[in-house]
Amino acid sequence: MPPKVKFNPDSIIDFAFDYVRKNGWDGLSARYIASEIGSSVGPIYTHFKSMKGLEVAVVNKTLQLFCDYLTTERTGDKWIDHGIGYVMFAKEESHLFQALFNKNYATLRKPYDQNIWRSLDEDLADYSPFKALSKGR
Asked: How many separate domains does the chain show?
């Protein structure tokens, strides 16, 4: 009997992320993932208590990619680079963009929003046009 294939959380997240990247959220299910990776749903639910847990991991990975797009230097002006990165992400990763900003999945993004915006604030901390602005809201 061949040894059982072991699935780790990262491989499951990567598969789900790639699925959402190509298709959006529609059709993503534990049963579909299991059939595609040649497994039962057991390994999925071993690593994630529910599909919601896996969806949160996909959102987190998507936010990391989104942040990479925003902070990649393209023009030498960080503020412009953020804007260009936003548009490029929307164009090049349209399913991920829609998945990230889909109102039905906004609550999945919430735990990570603060960290992403903090990271983007830090990226612009030394941006000279903003230095004259007050830190108040």
From this structure: 1
The pLDDT tens digits of the residues spanning 69-89 come to: 999 999 999 999 999 999 999
State the amino acid at position 78 in one-letter form.
Answer: K
Q: What is the CB neighbour count within 10 angstroms for residue 50?
A: 11
Which residue in this structure is represented by tokens 């639910």? 45
Domain around 90 = 9-124
Classify residue 123 by burial, with Cβ atoms within 10 Å: 0-12, 13-18, 19+: middle
**36: CATH:** 1.10.357.10
Distance CA 10, CA 12 (A): 5
Q: What is the 3-state secondary structure (H, E, C) of 60-82?
A: HHHHHHHHHHHHCCCCCCHHHHH
- pTM score: 0.84
